[in-house]
């Protein structure tokens, strides 16, 4: 089983489309850094962590570009295999369609982890290139002197404690969300469907939040943004708990795995 999972992960990652990840995150980082309030106006200092966190918290850009890009990378992982001789190569090794589907699920989630790590590395690098100071702690700006307590749930000197939770949560959320369009392609085998689904979900979710702010806590797409779980005074009228969001994505993950497994076993190959 481990061998099949490794085989699937390599197949997902070794694709030319992954070459756009670093440039895309570089663009998002540049937009995020430029969205930071002038620190001189609030008497606060900023550093590279502000650039990274502002990038992943820039909701209109992250929900429409960051999330959509990941779905574009992995959304056709079933469709591409069924339209090539690859299925006849891997199926004997997997020994069953259920094991093959499980390997694909594992590959999507691990690909999400790689994607987020690339994003973190790229945004920190671009922030440094934008001359934000390299420091081992969050700035006073991040802790409340800039955007209202955007990252106020973490200790001022503990980026290393914050980062693992941030990366793992973001990766699991992205992986769970991406499985939805993956299984949709099993019924409607169109290559554009995953990307169109993710783009529409991002645009509609953000637009709905602009028109009707109370919709945010009820929209699982918004829960892909880690920062909505931290104390803020400017976005949500009520708290969105991290535990609640984890349970939402666990439910989405379990449902998509079960539905996908059932459908995958009945597909023509």
Word description of this protein:
This protein is mainly alpha-helical and 269 residues long. It contains twelve helices and no strands. The protein is globular, with a radius of gyration of 19 Å.
Number of beta-strand segments: 0
Question: Count of helices?
Answer: 12
- Report strand %: under 5%
Uncertain runs? 146-153
Cα-to-Cα separation, first versus last residue: 21 Å
Structural class: mainly alpha
* Strand and helix order: HHHHHHHHHHHH
Helix amount, in percent? 55-70%
Mean pLDDT: 84
What radius of gyration results from the CA coordinates? 19 Å
Describe the sheet with the most strands: none
Shape: globular
What would the keywords be for this entry?
269 residues
Give the structure's gist in a few sentences.
The chain is an all-alpha fold. The protein is built from 12 helices and no strands.
What's the layout of helices and strands?
Blueprint: H1 2-13, H2 21-35, H3 39-42, H4 48-56, H5 59-74, H6 77-82, H7 86-94, H8 97-129, H9 141-145, H10 159-187, H11 193-211, H12 242-266
């Amino acid at each position: 089983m481990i061998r099949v999972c490794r085989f699937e992960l390599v197949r997902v990652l070794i694709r030319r489309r992954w070459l756009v990840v670093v440039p895309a995150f570089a663009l998002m980082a540049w937009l995020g850094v430029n969205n930071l309030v002038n620190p001189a106006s609030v008497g606060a200092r900023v550093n590279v962590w502000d650039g990274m966190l502002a990038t992943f918290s820039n909701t209109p850009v992250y929900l429409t570009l960051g999330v959509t890009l990941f779905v574009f990378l992995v959304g056709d992982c079933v469709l591409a295999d069924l339209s090539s001789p690859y299925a006849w190569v891997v199926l004997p090794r997997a020994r069953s369609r259920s094991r093959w589907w499980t390997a694909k699920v594992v590959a999507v989630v691990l690909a999400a982890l790689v994607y987020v790590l690339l994003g973190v590395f790229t945004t920190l690098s671009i922030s440094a290139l934008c001359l934000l100071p390299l420091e081992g702690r969050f700035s006073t700006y991040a802790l409340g002197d800039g955007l209202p307590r955007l990252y106020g749930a973490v200790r001022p000197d503990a980026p290393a404690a914050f980062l693992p939770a941030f990366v793992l949560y973001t990766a699991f959320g992205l992986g769970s969300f991406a499985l939805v369009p993956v299984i949709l392609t099993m019924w409607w085998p169109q290559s554009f469907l995953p990307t169109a689904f993710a783009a529409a979900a991002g645009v509609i979710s953000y637009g709905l939040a602009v028109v009707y702010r109370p919709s945010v806590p009820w929209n699982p797409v918004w829960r892909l943004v880690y920062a909505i779980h931290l104390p803020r005074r400017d976005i949500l009228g009520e708290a969105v708990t991290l535990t609640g969001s984890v349970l939402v994505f666990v439910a989405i993950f379990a449902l998509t795995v079960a539905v996908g497994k059932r459908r995958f076993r009945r597909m023509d190959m």
